[in-house]
Amino acid sequence: MYQVERAIFDLRRGLPVLLTDPAGDRLVHPVEGLDTEDMASLLEVCGEAPAMVVSVHRMAALGTQIEGEAACLALGSRAPLSLRALQTLAFGTSSQELALFADPKEAGTADTAALNLMRRALLIPAALTVGIRAGCREKVDDFVAQGRLLSVSAQAAADCLIQADGGLVRISEARIPLAEAEASRFVLFRESDGLREHLAILIGDRKKWKSAVPLRLHSACLTGDLFASLRCDCGEQLRGAVADIDAQGGGILLYLAQEGRGIGLANKLRAYALQDSGFDTLDADQVLGFGDDERQYRVAVDMLRALEVDCVQMLTNNPLKIEALANGGIEVVGRQGLFGRVTTHNRRYLHAKAERAGHWLEEAFENEQSQQSG
Ligand SMILES: Nc1nc2c(ncn2[C@@H]2O[C@H](COP(=O)(O)OP(=O)(O)OP(=O)(O)O)[C@@H](O)[C@H]2O)c(=O)[nH]1
Ligand SMILES: [Zn+2]
């Protein structure tokens, strides 16, 4: 996986990567950060029609349902390409470009690889990809030999999401007294590829924990957790969970590096901007090419195993979290809801979670009504 990790860094820096594949090597560049110069150099080596890889979610936002995870769009067959057209196709809110510029075809291994690399790199999941013209092969190989271009096996890159959260390493720990739970200990875990770190906050005296350990899985939300953003309920849930766990005699809060339901902070801010123009929280993510919820909870299961916990009582309103732990072999014996305040800024977000993602939030809205009438 070493080359894959390096590829992720190159892509995040706005550099292209060569994906090697028996079906034909492809040069790949994220659409995010692409400029006219990058585009011209890629098209110069291009042997056949260039293509763009987008996700099934982006295709749905463009009004086309497809099977599988990725779609390969053959570009430029009907009209000349422009950077603006590529960007509109990748993350714009008008779907006209699809009809103008692109013919969808089935995605191959290199296409899936390109898409998975973008997602793991927390970039918008859309990439410009080109096959290499015979006359340019030598130049591309020279670039690889000189270390100016990174070459990665498409198969290894395609697998980067599956392997991403295996092999957690317990790195360091310390006692951190918290305002809501003085006897707290932070344990930091790092994913084996070094890209993400997650925290387990152990609250209270472990010897006194109930046999079904009170557990909160909390996905990072910088805006809510740290700055008390009113757009969501995360900050209040976080502090409320620490206090609740402490009041129940102790337990665990796993603070997971899954900002923005797994799409990353940069994309969450983009999604917020889209919400301000009328999209709800799920549709905004779809415009950017993401699914309703991109989080994977294997990392949480691995942390619980490392902490020797296999039976829990969860603090959550999210049915997916319970399902994911149960599928990972953790016994979930009960659930307790956890609510922040409903505000004018977060009401629409909470409604979308309840109505479209099946979160149990009735009590939050009951509290809102009683506060209003009281
Ligand atoms: N993409 C996106 N992410 C958001 C938005 N608002 C909040 N988030 C993220 O959603 C996640 C919320 O995580 P959690 O607090 O674990 O909440 P949850 O999935 O609602 O589940 P419970 O709180 O356990 O009921 C965090 O990663 C936030 O950064 C939004 O509008 N768009
Ligand atoms: Zn939040």
Automatic annotation (TrEMBL):
Its keywords, alphabetically, are:
GTP-binding, Hydrolase, Metal-binding, Nucleotide-binding, Riboflavin biosynthesis, Zinc
The UniProt entry, under InterPro entries, shows:
GTP_cyclohydro_II, RibA, RibA-like_sf
Q: Does the keyword Iron-sulfur apply?
A: no
Q: Where is the GTP cyclohydrolase II domain?
A: 171-335
Residues that, per the record, bind Zn(2+) = 221, 232, 234
Per the record, what are the reactions this protein catalyses? Answer: GTP + 4 H2O = 2,5-diamino-6-hydroxy-4-(5-phosphoribosylamino)-pyrimidine + formate + 2 phosphate + 3 H(+)
Could you name the Gene Ontology cellular component terms for this entry? cytosol
Example GO biological process: riboflavin biosynthetic process
Q: In which pathway does it act?
A: Cofactor biosynthesis; riboflavin biosynthesis; 5-amino-6-(D-ribitylamino)uracil from GTP: step 1/4
- The source's domain of life comes to Bacteria
The coenzyme or cofactor needed here is: Zn(2+)
NCBIfam families attached here?
Answer: PRK00393.1
Per the record, the similarity remark reads:
Belongs to the GTP cyclohydrolase II family.
Function recorded in the entry? Catalyzes the conversion of GTP to 2,5-diamino-6-ribosylamino-4(3H)-pyrimidinone 5'-phosphate (DARP), formate and pyrophosphate.
Which protein are we looking at? Answer: GTP cyclohydrolase-2
Q: Which organism is it from?
A: Pistricoccus aurantiacus
